[in-house]
Amino acid sequence: MEKQCVVCKSIFNVKPSKYEIRRTCGHKCRSVLYSHERRGAGNSSWKGGQKHGSGYLWVKRESHPYANADGYVKRSRLVVEESIGRILEPTECVHHANCIKDDDRLENLQIVSVPEHAKIHFKGKAKSIETKNKHSIAMKRSWELRKNAKPN
């Protein structure tokens, strides 16, 4: 019996006993079909588009201009952006006032520049001259990259 592949639309032969079961013409199309069916809500491990990572809560937002490679954005960033009605600039970041990374209440979040955020967290900590120089170079490089970044 002949049947049409649901992925590549080619016609393939199938045994009558497998007609109701088979949907693809071969291994390649089957792997494509299963990878698409098992993404997002179709995956048994799906947790509603939220995950924990490095202490932060991340939300699936593939359309966000500053989403990471997996399509996730920190929830704290989304909360602040929603409250101010715009996307944060690459030179801005969100600081948790009480230093609890998953406490995303608006009253706990502050918009600060990247260098300002570093000053908040490294305030009063003694550093060697070499460490100061390394951090200074790294922060300048990071700051320049953020200033020149353009949303997708």
Written account of the structure:
- With 152 residues, the chain is an alpha+beta fold.
- It has 4 helices and 7 strands; from the N terminus they run E-E-H-E-E-E-H-E-E-H-H.
- A 3-stranded antiparallel beta sheet has the order 3-4-5. Strands 1-2 form a two-stranded antiparallel sheet.
- It has 2 domains: 2-37, no CATH class; 50-148, no CATH class.
- Strand 3 and strand 4 form a beta hairpin.
Given as residue ranges, the uncertain stretches (5+ residues, pLDDT < 50) are none
How much of the residues is beta strand, in percent?
A: 15-25%
Q: How are the strands ordered across the major sheet?
A: 3-4-5
Give the helix level as a range of percent. Answer: 25-40%
What is the tally of beta strands? 7
Query: SSE order in H/E notation?
Result: EEHEEEHEEHH
Q: Tell me the span between the first and last alpha carbons.
A: 48 Å
- Overall body shape: elongated
How many whole angstroms does the radius of gyration measure? 24 Å
Mean pLDDT: 86
Number of helices: 4
Q: What characterizes the major β-sheet?
A: 3 strands, antiparallel
Helix/strand/pairing class, anyone?
alpha+beta
Taken together, the total number of domains comes to: 2
